[in-house]
Amino acid sequence: MARVSDQPSMRPDASLPLERPVGGMLIAARSVFARSLGIILLIVAWEAVARSGSVTPFLLPTFTATMTRIWSDTLSGELLGNLGVTIYRSIAGFAIATVLGIALGTLMSRNRLVRWFFDPIISVGFPMPKIAFLPIVILWLGFYDVPKISMVAVEAIFPIVTATLIGIQGVERELLWSARNMGANEREVVWHVVMPAAFPQIMTGLQVALPIALIVAIVTEMLMGGYGVGGAMINASRLADSRGVFAGIVEIAVIGFVMVKCMALLRRRMLLWHQEAQDPTTV
Amino acid sequence: MTEQPQIVVDRVSHMYRPLNGRPVVALDDISLDIRPREFIALLGPSGCGKSTLLYLIGGFLPIEKGRITVADKPVASPGPDRGIVFQHFALFPWKTVRNNVLYGLERMRLPRKEREQRAQSFIDLVGLSGFEDSYPSQLSGGMKQRAAIARTLALDPAILLMDEPFGALDSQTRSLMQTELLNIWQRSPKTVIFVTHDVQEAVYLADRVAVMSARPGRIKTIVDTKFDKNDPEILKAKPFVEKVDELWRLVRIEALKVQERKGG
Amino acid sequence: MKTFVRYLPLLLLAVAWETVSRLGIVSSLVLPALSSVAQAWFALIKEPDFWSNTAASLYRAGSGLLLAIVVGAALGIAMAWWRPLNVLLSSVVEMFYPMPKTALIPVTALWLGFGDGSKILLIFLGCMLPVTLGAYNGARSSDRTLIWSSRSMGASRLRVLWDVVIPSAMPELLNGVRTALALSFILLVTSEQIVSRQGLGYLIGYLGANGSYDAMFAVVMTVAFLGFAADRLYQVLMQRALAWRE
After folding, report:
1. Which of C8, C99, C213 is nearest residue A256 as measured by Cβ atoms?
2. Cβ contact, residue pair B19, A14, below 8 Å
3. The pTM is what?
4. Tell me, which fold does domain A77-270 have in CATH?
5. Mean pLDDT over residues B90-102, rounded?
């Protein structure tokens, strides 16, 4: 079965043990600065290269020009419109995937037949570029939102099912036995013991699925055109509107970043009681 | 004429600087003379800095305050003259036992035939004949530690640094390994610095035991523990048991301090 | 026998597909029968066009992936080894990790047009990140005692990098490559459908626009299968390379 990958964490303070760690209160201020340093330098480099004249403004519009474009799009309402549509599609698909995925994963963990039926489907389907099926999905479900949201759900459901299964199976036997020993009935065991114990793993699955949902939403928009950030980017590309394209990249990068951070925060909040509240585990 | 001490630790202090937290004094003004071919144990509760002292002598941590000299030369970096054996074996998991042992030998610039013979002789010495082509993941804890010891011994270091080497083994394996270590040491004596928190292990194995205090680590006392290791009944002999008791009392005080600090 | 039972559900689905389509429950336009898809596939592989498109796709994905692995791994390990590099690049990597790499499709098309170059660049840039991350995390997880043992046996700092850090990084690096492999398929298929005049992705769009739905289905299934097969094959190779693990 495919695995659920972990969050990147690349704090600059943590390098190989051959280095001597520096302590003190400077660490906090230093690390915030260090964290943003790369991005700041990247932006500066971007602007410098763009202005230097070594590439045409078409190939690389300046950072400022891109930001100006984003600003004007915000004012015109276009940015929010597109953003809203894309986020709507990804969240909708993600929500469907979450509900169905957790349900299916739970069912699979409890029922041999269901498990047998879906196991090869998941194992074979996971590594497939399911996006290849989009033309077929369009054939079935037409244009507009439905095929997009469906595609999002189909792609996002895989890591969620996998994580749910693994999470539930990973619940220690002793926990279940203790609960039953104390007189809990089956339903109580599932809701009060299994679900909370499996939650970190499930949460990891959700954290993996959300960026996937965003990616798929944008990809379907690019393939199908129309509204949405992806669609706007492709239109810009077709019209040789390089500022629009770069504006799109910045917007997408920011959305992606915000979504991931939100999930991480959510995870931390919900797993305060769990020892590994810090980072999700690898499977 | 008295023998020149091989290792001199002169007023060494060390600060431990965690990434998020205040620096802590790990070692406070430690001085120690270690004679050539002596088997000395560093004994103390967890966190007392005994491993830190070992790492400083090994050259793995920078010496900030004080000096450490080995054969009159100051310690600057790790080297094959001070072989190290870790608690969790530190074998290269992607290499077979033989290749692990050969690794150190490759630095020695011997002809290939000789390297292989040497490696084999040490693998045989620690009792792993037949397991040369096994990977560490296929070995038991005791076997892994033997492989680690073979690897370090193959370099023929004058000094052997051992950081709770038997701590990860079950008690039966541990006793077997202790006896084997003594056999090996008696056959080719080296200076051994042996870190442990097990009082009986320290008294049994070592000629001298340096008892360390809880953090900040200081040497409380150094006690002679030379007993007849070849006597099979030595662990029950009265002087031995009394010595263990004496040291246990000293260590216990320090161990309780550690408990209190943790608030339990 | 066990494998047969394990994959039986897929066979059942295939049968269901054929039945549903044959019986006309679903229009054969929307769901061509499995048998006619198979027929179309056999007809396709006889045409040189199919192979030239496949070759183009494989060439693009292969080159892009290879570059991504080499550069990505080197970068990841370098970041784990040299703190200044880490400080410089880690925030950049963290920023771009959650970004959907498909956002690069319009940009690379803008820069390099509709040909091979833009696809190779796309896959190179898009797939580099998981590899870098895997290499970085893997190198960072190097056991301190292994490094120290190595040093005490006379290895120089540089040798430690080669003897200890890189092998230690392998498991996570190879996992990162696996992610990159799956990502390369997605990027390839998508970009070929939008900004290309060649390749399997393009072929899918072309056949669809033409109304040759069973041929389109055939190519879609081929691509999906290739993605699956590549992953399985890679897993086997990975197991071999990491045989020393428990």
Report:
1. C99
2. yes
3. 0.79
4. MetI-like fold (1.10.3720)
5. 91
